Hints:
mainly alpha, 5 helices
Amino acid sequence: MPRDTSAAAQAASPPRAAAGDAHRHRVEMAARILAGTLGAYGLTVQLTVVLSFLVARAGMARVEAVTAATLASFAIFAGISMAAFHTRSAARAWLWLTITAPPLAPLDWGLGPVR
């Protein structure tokens, strides 16, 4: 069977370089999606805990402080997720998330309720 050399057949199969670019783009998007969802969720949880402790220490009742921080967490998550998609690369988004998260862990522990 002769090989189809028509323009339609050549357009249907991308050249090797384009296939590599497509793969790189898919990996970049997958990393960005993970940063915008799971990374944003992890950072939001830490920020919500710190915020609830700070608001409770400012004089609000614990239950109200947790409720207020939880309500604020929806806006925090949206902002972090949008920032992850706004960065120039997924690596920058992950770098930003990994630099921001570790300092919050000691704050979570240090601001926690004393028993």
